[in-house]
Design goal:
Blueprint lengths: L13 H19 L14 E9 L16 E2 H6 L6 E10 L54 E3 L6 E3 L16 E3 L1 H6 L21 E2 L17 H4 L5 E2 L9 H7 L27 E3 L11 H9 L12 H12 L5 H10 L3 H28 L5 H21 L8
Antiparallel strand pairs: 1-2, 1-3, 4-5, 6-9, 7-8
Helix pairs in contact: 1-7, 1-8
Amino acid sequence: MEQKDDQDTSYVTMADILKEQEELEETSRAVLGGSDEKNCTYTMGYVGRQALYACLTCVPEARGVESKRSGICLACSLHCHDNHELLELYTKRNFRCDCGGKRMPDVKCKLEPRKEEENMKNRYNQNFSGLYCICHRPYPDPEDDAEDEMIQCIVCEDWYHMRHLDVDEPKSAKDYAEMVCGGCMEAKPFLKNYVGKIEDTNKTVLDDTVQVDVTGLDESTAATPSDPETAGPSEPKQRRLDESNVPAEDLEKDKPTVSLDICTKPPMAADKDEKSYKKGASFWVEGWRKFLCQCKACIELYKQHDVEYLLNEKDTVKHYEEIGKQKHGTDGNSYEQGMQMLGQLDRGTQVDMLTEYNRMTSRLREFLDQFVANQQVVTRDDINEFFAKLNKERRETTSSGPPPYFCR
């Protein structure tokens, strides 16, 4: 068999292609799996979380005019806006489809044509105009060569370059489950109290929380333990859970059980404390929302700041993604199926297939590079035309003589 040149970075194997397909399928299941691809979600009202798109073909003004921003559901993107210039917005919470509605009066929704009520509760951040982060740039950015991942804030749901968060990046994605950007940390200051107090939810749980009786207090003015002028000096401290003496199953069971009259929000750590909140974004471990205080005063606080969804475990992107994976079942992905089928072929056929895959991917890369260079959108018709041409060339090569010989 031909030896692979170690310096040849364009070399692509069958395993590479199938592995890439596996990653694409995993992303697709995560983003689209929990959404309905056949029915418009308008009649469902403000859906807790769903995949959304913005159509710049139908509403080009959305690029520069905030009041023109709009969003459509997955089904409408497929049935009403096929071959349009769409912005993939990942997922957003509490949103009702705008396709054919007040924000898109010139569009006729094919799936749910009667949309007379304005979607007053929808929120449209800069993502609906194709801009992201504090740098207000598109993604991907044609003028930015820096390799940097983007991460979504779970409060404002905007996306941020990791380098623009002005904090030390976690060592790995396994070190955190969610992120709150610096702007939202300032806008929701009570979250600062929990920084450094929630680490691994299987190990440490809100040590030294403060116990406060808020019974009978007016909920809109109830004191919180982070306010030294109202908390009082005689409030007893308690260790919420002593894990050294509690079995793991009991620990998990006891976590959510909090009295509505006992505030468990920890006091702000001193600035000199190593675990105190530092300015900027904050990263949170999986399950951290369970330990947000749910006393009457804090519940009122969440209402005032419009973040009651933080107490809803079904609000998390992970929960949404799990629904998508369960919806698609566990029959295996293309990578597993493809490698199993490849292993059943004789060696000669394997080599021929691998070579043809390498040739096809090389041609496809050249084809797509033209669109990148000309800043054009690749349509379904373009892809169909490419493969039709490829099949025609293959048939002509086969009919004109024996197939090319490959070293084995």
